[in-house]
Amino acid sequence: MEGIVTSIRIGNRSEDFRYNVIWQGKAAQIRSTVPLDLYDMIEIDDNSEMPYINAKQPHGRASEAECNEIISNFSKAIEVHRNKPHSVGKEIDEFILAGKDAIESYALMLLEAYVSGAPIIIRFHNDGDGSTGAIALYRAFNSVRGKFFENENANVYWTMNKSIAYSEDSLFVDESIFNSYKSVRKPLILITDFGTTYESESAIKKASKRYSIIWIDHHPIYDGFPYAGFDFYINPWTLGMNSNICAGVITASIAEKFAPELDFTLLKKAALDSDHSKYYVYAENAHALALVLDSLTANDRIGYQEKRITPKYLEATIADPESFAHVLNSASAQIAESLDIGVKNAKRHVTKSGIAAYVLDYKAVADRRFEYIKQGRYTTKLQDKLEETNGFRTITIVYYKNYISVRVNKGISNSINLLGIIAKLKENTAYIQNGGGHSEAASIKVDYDETSSVMHLLLDELIAI
Ligand SMILES: [Mn+2]
To answer: Are residues 312 and 179 part of one domain?
Structure first.
């Protein structure tokens, strides 16, 4: 069979080079003893062992049109456009319908980049929602590989993103990977569950000129965010919906477009659970999965081995009943114990209009050095816990070192104007380094010695409401 070289991973020595070769309905990553170039046509011996080692000179070059046709035959083979999504509720279905064109074109872009061996970098947020999307893509790629590849596809890179920005540093790292490739399709960056922040703007603009981008987010869009100029951006807010449509659900919906034989229902439910979506209907298995993924992604390295967190690792852990149970039990115990400390130690204040405002010095929890429990996520869980006894008229403030985390119930967030209060504090004191979030969850970074004084100023503002 005749194959076309569609990507080259450049190595230090010629024998380290890897060529992605495609022919009718098949792809492989091979080595070659003679140097090859993109679009070169080489003979693939059907009986050869993979990774096939080529020793013959190419016998011609394919045209771009011929190459494109072979690539698009892959997508035809798996009917990207036809399959219906596995439903996790009416509202989600409505979103998938509204975003249908984008979802299908992203699925096609991903599939074509994958089979043609273009380098792909997947950056996922470090929580349950972000990681469900990454796992869905990981499974979908594996399924495509099983159908079309004679051997591995080593051109997908996974990065768990601990910040909420796609920064210049992120672009620098991604670029250094892309620089060791030549490919007929552009290198592709996929971002899921983060990035809608001012700090991402310059890197995204630069990246979009050089690479393909698929950017999936569901965080609120701030004034002046230039999303209209990004045709690679999908966010329910731009379609008249909101954050209750989670990024993991959108990402899984893209993945199932090119791997229709896979069922991501449980992953989607776990994404909704993890992000407190109002479209989530409680299910024990989804809740357990969300908790386990949230716990596994809380730290960016694995134990003493200091390994990076990848979907492969997450998948292996959730697939093994013993590991799954271990993580689940440990996370549940840490939550129970830390919430117990919080409920006992939080000081209750009542605002002018009768809202309960709880304040916790996080030191009591931090001193226990829980592996999973971190201040931001903890504040959300404590707010949920306090709402159980107080109802929706509840605010939670947790402060420690130079951070203050605040949570406000959805039902009262409009009357609080949390971001307005933070902006006012910023104006009135010199101690706030930065602060932000949205009307129900925000954090403030303060000069180290002034945390308690800023916390009191914040409390005064809230008590006056
Ligand atoms: Mn999310």
So the answer is: yes
